[in-house]
Amino acid sequence: MKFTVIALSLSIAAVAHAQGGGASPANEAKQAYNRVKSVLTKAAEKMPDADYSFKPMPEMRPFGALIAHIADVQSRMCGAVTGSSPAGSASSKTAKADLMAALNESFAACDKAVDSLTDQNALEAVGSGRMQRSRIGAIYGMIIHNNEEYGYASVYLRLKNVVPPSSEGGR
């Protein structure tokens, strides 16, 4: 069912593009990815080093673990799109510099995955088994996950009196 809905949506968008509508599913996905990449990177940079161990509540993960989670999930999801299978080791890191490096490395992997997306290959199957999805579906899955995690990161930042990047003026 999901595949049918995605296929239908892409077909409509492709027809609109061909008729001069200018919409491109691949370009729209790339724009959404670049927006969330920007705010996540800035959020990770804005949090002070000492607050990477900050937990809003005892049962919640520290901010650094949230960044590690984003990096590891991105590595897996984008690896599925490009056909590589990086393990992701950010969860073993705690220092801001190490976590920023892991996050940037995962974004480099996702840049390759997103750059490989075209309107023509958007519906190609990537991944395997239960993780098999269309190329554009996998990329949007990663974008959705990142937006959700950015929402959490914004709360951590606000609790430390740091303005989240998406709330800054003059973007």
Characteristic terms for this protein:
globular, Four Helix Bundle (Hemerythrin (Met), subunit A), two-stranded antiparallel ribbon, mainly alpha, 171 residues
Overall description:
By secondary structure, the chain is mainly alpha-helical. It has one domain: dinb family like domain (Four Helix Bundle (Hemerythrin (Met), subunit A)). Helix content is 61%, strand content 2%. It is built from five helices and two strands, in the order ααααββα. Strands 1-2 form a two-stranded antiparallel sheet. Helix 2 (25-46) runs antiparallel to helix 4. The longest helix has 25 residues, at 135-159. It is globular.
Summarize the structure.
The protein has helices spanning 2-18, 25-46, 63-82, 96-115, 135-159, and strands at 125-126, 133-134. By secondary structure, the protein is mostly helical.
Overall shape: globular
Strand ordering within the main sheet = 1-2
CATH topology assignment: Four Helix Bundle (Hemerythrin (Met), subunit A)
> Could you give the count of β-strands?
2
* CATH level-4 homologous superfamily: dinb family like domain
Total helices: the number is 5
The CATH first-level class comes to Mainly Alpha
Query: CATH architecture, please?
Result: Up-down Bundle
Q: Tell me the major beta sheet.
A: 2 strands, antiparallel
β-strand percent reads under 5%
Which structural class is indicated by helix and strand composition? mainly alpha
